[in-house]
Specification:
Layout (H helix, E strand, L loop, with lengths): L11 E7 L2 E6 H26 L8 H21 L1 H4 L3 H16 L12 H23 L2 H4 L8 H36 L2 H4 L3 H29 L9
Antiparallel strand pairs: 1-2
Helix pairs in contact: 1-4, 2-4, 4-9, 5-7, 5-9, 7-9
């Protein structure tokens, strides 16, 4: 009886040696390269279109899309991080939104989503963790550290809670995207070919587009909220 091989894991594509250690170029690296290259190209094209735009003429479709996205990100950061600090984080949050969303929907184009690799989501969680504590020390000084010991009896719980932030952020994103990748991998590997011509479209719409957009929004919202909590009370007004 013929069996179908179901593949949804990370595959090694090329092995090389560095400082005596054997390392691999995997499908995650290739997908990350494609997504980063796509973002760079979009940024260059958008920059040229905006610079060449004539203020006396109606903007084109691409310029309208770019301006709408920029205004949406600026509004999102201002509403969640305050007018004073929000715009400072617009570039970072906008890039984060674009990167995670493109990563999540890359399955539509036959790629394995990089966010289905915990190494990718953990790196994103660590970046958020660093920004949280950088801004904590910047705006609260030593109060950011001493606040963990108030009240003293809850200090261990407070410390564990802070250290768990990048883990919870990264696992939430990884778990949701990985589950969709596994489901689609099982469907493509186990169902007859003629059914695959129609049915998976609806599943891709949910697992890649809908779920991918929701998880992108959740990750970025939590990032903004955690960072904004480090500002003084009057700073976020």
């Amino acid at each position: 009886m013929e069996t179908k091989e179901v593949g949804f894991g990370i595959n090694g594509l090329y092995q090389y040696e560095l400082f005596g250690q054997k390392l691999w170029i995997t499908t995650t690296h290739v997908c990350l390269f494609i997504i980063i290259l796509t973002i760079i190209i979009l940024a260059i094209v958008a920059n040229r279109v905006i610079k060449k735009a004539d203020p006396l003429k109606p903007p084109g479709h691409f310029q309208n899309i770019v301006e709408t996205l920029i205004e949406s990100v600026d509004g999102l950061t201002r509403s969640n991080m305050g007018v004073k600090h929000g715009l400072k984080f617009s570039n970072y949050i906008g890039t984060l939104l674009l990167f995670i969303f493109l990563s999540n929907i890359s399955g539509l184009f036959g790629l394995r989503p990089p966010t289905a690799d915990y190494g990718t989501t953990l790196a994103l969680g660590v970046m958020t963790f660093i920004l949280i504590h950088y801004n904590g020390f910047k705006y609260q000084k030593l109060g950011h550290l001493t606040g963990l010991f108030k009240p003293l009896i809850l200090a261990p719980i407070n410390i564990i809670g802070e250290l768990a932030t990048p883990i919870s952020l990264s696992l939430r994103l990884f778990g949701n995207i990985m589950s969709g990748t596994v489901m689609l991998g099982l469907i493509y590997g186990l169902l007859p070919k003629f059914i695959l011509l129609i049915w998976p479209a609806a599943l891709h719409a949910y697992f890649d587009v809908f779920s991918g957009a929701i998880q992108t929004y959740v990750f970025c919202m939590l990032t903004m909220v955690f960072i904004a909590n480090q500002f003084d009370g009057d700073e976020t007004a």
